[in-house]
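subagent[fold] <- orchestrator: predict structure for attached chain, return tokens only, no commentary.
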Amino acid sequence: MTYRAPAGTCVGHVHLKVSDLDRSIAFYQDVLGFELQMRYGAQAAFLSAGGYHHHVGLNTWDSLGAPPAPARAPGLYHSAFVFPSRPDLARAVARVIETGHALTGASDHGVSEAVYLDDPDGNGVELYRDRPREDWPRDEDGALVMFTRRLDLDELLSEAGR
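subagent[fold] -> orchestrator:
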């Protein structure tokens, strides 16, 4: 018998080791718009969207002042934050650009549209929105077909409403 996680199971939060807590709080709060829910002294903080206890945990317990992890080593590839709509994603991306923070990529995956950047410690961050399930690309047998194509950022940003 094979166990399968039940439908509705999702990632509750990401908890990251960071080298400078205040710098990371500023990025996740001021650039990405998460709200600081709780600070655990000078060593940890918890941020969220919409008042949830936390979507992002940050700590310096084993990483205070440390350099970023090597790019070619095992570890986190990126954390991904899904937005409820395309205009919401566009507003988030516009905010990142307004702060002067560099984007590292923008892709259309068929099932989703995604924009990529790095946090101050070099942890990858994906901001994305899912397309409606009925619009996901499938082959003639009905199997899901994902791909990576260039996302038109200008067209996305036109939906920011600014």
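orchestrator: received. Logging for downstream: The domain at 13-64 is CATH 3.10.180.10 (2,3-Dihydroxybiphenyl 1,2-Dioxygenase; domain 1). Helices lie at 21-31, 86-98, 153-157.
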